[in-house]
Amino acid sequence: MTSEYGLKGKNIVVTGAAGGLGSSIVDSFASFGANILLTDIQGKEKALNNISKKNIKKHGIKSHVLSLDISNRRDVEKNLEISLRSFSKKIDCLVNCAAIYHKNFWDPIGNKNIEDWENIININLFGTLNVIRQILPKMIKQKSGNIISISSDSGIDTIPGESAYGISKASIIKLMEYLARENPKSGIRFNSIAPGYIDTPLLRSLIKTKKIEKEAINTIPVNRFAKPQDIADVVLFLASNKSKYINGECIVANGGRY
């Protein structure tokens, strides 16, 4: 099993690793023998350590953890660099999974919500950019690498009430396209994934009634929310040698949601 994707012994960095999707991505890489540097915000140390220890014990991989505010450029430049040095000289893949959402499903542009907008854009867009800028030079120097960013189908569709989130995720898609075109012949691939609803604690905190849940599922032809593993499987594919001719693309994985 560990040789199916060619990931055994590869060195992976995952942001947002303590979340419902991030932890599933970490577990998936570990199951194929990859070493992982897990990062998430301060306050998630216990969850990070538990995920790391579990995968070291179960799969015998190397795993490091790092508390990191990706929206703080100085924090990324200093502390991520220190962790990378102790983790591995070579980084094979970066998965940008860290992100935040609106406080509720309805937060239109007309609201006086500038602080919410700033937080979402700073973390989802600039946070992703900060991490990429720290790791990309290493990949350019080693002439190989793979950067995968989790966007959202909200970045493709226009869903009233979640403008800041949707705009931040649309920016992620364009960011990866630009990186692919600005770094030709580099040996590095840049892709994004646009999931729809993912059944995580975050989604459950927003869907407060069975009626809302039913209405949401009715927009999905496969008739269910994505499981975190559904999206983790797409990440594995893009990180693997099975997708070596895919670059600058966004894979929509939303069950056909409309």
Key features of this structure:
258 residues; alpha/beta; Rossmann fold; 7-stranded parallel beta sheet; globular
Q: Briefly note the structural class of the backbone.
A: alpha/beta
Summarize the helix and strand pattern as letters: EHEHEHEHEHEHHHE
In DSSP terms (H or I, runs of 4 or more residues), the helix count works out at 8
The largest sheet is:
7 strands, parallel
What can you see in these coordinates?
This protein is an alpha/beta fold. It has one domain: NAD(P)-binding Rossmann-like Domain (Rossmann fold). The protein has eight helices and seven strands. The protein has helices spanning 20-31, 45-59, 73-87, 114-142, 163-182, 201-206, 210-217, 228-239; strands at 11-14, 35-40, 63-67, 93-96, 145-150, 188-195, 250-253. A seven-stranded parallel sheet has the order 3-2-1-4-5-6-7, with helices on both faces. Strand 5, helix 5 and strand 6 (188-195) form a beta-alpha-beta unit. Helix 3 runs parallel beside helix 4 (114-142). The longest helix has 29 residues, at 114-142. The relative contact order is 0.15. The model has no long low-confidence stretch (mean pLDDT 95).
Give the SSE map.
Elements (H helix, E strand, L loop, with lengths): L10 E4 L5 H12 L3 E6 L4 H15 L3 E5 L5 H15 L5 E4 L17 H29 L2 E6 L12 H20 L5 E8 L5 H6 L3 H8 L10 H12 L10 E4 L5
Parallel strand pairs: 1-2, 1-4, 2-3, 4-5, 5-6, 6-7
Helix pairs in contact: 1-2, 1-8, 3-4, 4-5
